[in-house]
Amino acid sequence: MQNSKLNEMLEKSKRLKSSLKSFFDEIYEIENNWTDVYGRNADDQYARNQLYKAAELLRQAHGELDALTSPVAAEGALIRNSNGRFMLVGRELSSGYPIEYLEKDDFDDTEIWRRGRIEHYDGDYRIWKRPDIPLEGLRVRIKA
């Protein structure tokens, strides 16, 4: 059960996503014709560089908030189908497919959803950067 402060923060996250996207989209659009906005002097180029770096970080923050606030489309245990790929509730998950997988913390036995993606390497499907986690039967969810 979520408490009221958590619900408040989730709602704020949803509202913040729109502002973040508006900002980084505008910075990226300005880059298409940057000479209309920035001069070639050191101060303007510094501002251009810093704003672009900030836009990149805000785009990443937007992605994290999007993952947090997007509804779950499907959840269950992965099963391997006849062609060797993994399935979740009738969906075949191929290379690059984004998932969240349930992981137990070894320190205190709490469970946490971790973001990942399915990739094919070393002759099998695995979670990118977590080849130690077997996929068969792994509890995962995908977002809408």
Q: What can you see in these coordinates?
A:
- With 144 residues, the protein is an alpha+beta fold.
- 40% of the residues lie in helices and 28% in strands.
- It is built from two helices and eight strands; from the N terminus they run H-H-E-E-E-E-E-E-E-E.
- The strands form two sheets. The protein has a five-stranded antiparallel β-sheet with strand order 1-8-5-6-7, with no helix packed on it.
- Helix 1 (4-32) crosses helix 2.
- The chain is elongated, with a radius of gyration of 20 Å.
- The mean pLDDT is 94.
Number of helices: 2
Structural class call reads: alpha+beta
Give the N-terminus to C-terminus distance in angstroms: 22 Å
Side by side, the strands of the main sheet go 1-8-5-6-7
Mean pLDDT: 94
Shape: elongated
Strand content: 25-35%
**Main sheet, how many strands, which sense, barrel?**
5 strands, antiparallel
Q: Would you list the SSEs in sequence order as H and E?
A: HHEEEEEEEE
| Helical residues, percent | 25-40%
Number of strands: 8
Radius of gyration: 20 Å
User: Uncertain runs with pLDDT below 50, 5 residues or more?
Assistant: none
Helices and strands in order, then pairings?
Layout: H1 4-32, H2 42-69, E1 72-77, E2 79-80, E3 86-88, E4 91-93, E5 98-104, E6 111-121, E7 124-127, E8 139-143
Antiparallel strand pairs: 1-8, 2-3, 3-4, 5-6, 5-8, 6-7
Helix pairs in contact: 1-2
